[in-house]
Predict the structure.
Amino acid sequence: MENQQMSPMRKHSKKRDAILRCVRSTTIHPSAEWVYQQLKPDYPQLSLGTVYRNLNLFREEGAIASLGVVGGLERFDGNPNPHVHFVCLRCGAVQDVGELQLPVELMQQAEHYISGEIEQCTLSFSGLCSQCKSGDSSPHC
Amino acid sequence: MENQQMSPMRKHSKKRDAILRCVRSTTIHPSAEWVYQQLKPDYPQLSLGTVYRNLNLFREEGAIASLGVVGGLERFDGNPNPHVHFVCLRCGAVQDVGELQLPVELMQQAEHYISGEIEQCTLSFSGLCSQCKSGDSSPHC
DNA sequence: ACAAAAATAATAATGAGTGCTATTATTATT
DNA sequence: AATAATAATAGCACTCATTATTATTTTTGT
């Protein structure tokens, strides 16, 4: 059993820092493309691939979280602590519902009924956000 | 306000029936591709586009449900009644947790904290299924 | 400054899903 | 049963989010 994969030494990168700062500085739960557009003015040489690569890196190490795919785009969350979300089915806007607790007590119960080991609990609500409810036809997220 | 879009008269189709039967006959929460592969032997002329089109049709009219994207593939559920799921983070297998109730009472509470109207509640657990836990490296879903 | 290695830019490639159109199947009507 | 109207499909082109590739640039230790 040779060639134990050793993770390469992490080097510092200004763009990587900026990407993390960007995701952490908003609650809109952005896509890679959104982060790219935000940083483009300050980093004209930034490449979309770099945004994708670093977002995945941060997600893998738990620095940020992924909400999964909403309307065809993977959405990220600068707050990696599990919490409840509300997703608009029409425009894809995501809101935090920080006031509600996740039903973590159900995790142990659920494990009795499935074959496997439960690690995470995801609770989210969906419907229409106020703007979409009031017939706003312009995209706003 | 003319040209009220009138939905075209629905005609019967053997393939459409087979697609619905296929999704309803399993609990693996299949992807379009899986349904296509299942039906191919019995319907050699079946087109993947037809599977996509009809799955979307059934989802829109509420005959089936979508679990969203798991590992890059949209997964469907022949049981349109909301219920709890367990998703394996490694292989993407989905199990029902029919014994647990959805915390629907939280829907009203959540609506106090967000701006919008909540319609649905989604609760799912994730982790490693038993096969993936025991180091099974072959795909099994 | 120099060398080694990690990070990036630019671009090609991938692949799930959708759109398009000629053909086929279904249904109602003779 | 033939006909006509139209819905559904097959086959394939296309879109577009994401990943892979590679030559170049940046970082970091010496």
User: Anything to note?
Assistant: The domain at 1-79 of chain B is CATH 1.10.10.10 (Arc Repressor Mutant, subunit A). Chain B has a mean pLDDT of 94. The first helix of chain B runs from residue 14 to 24.
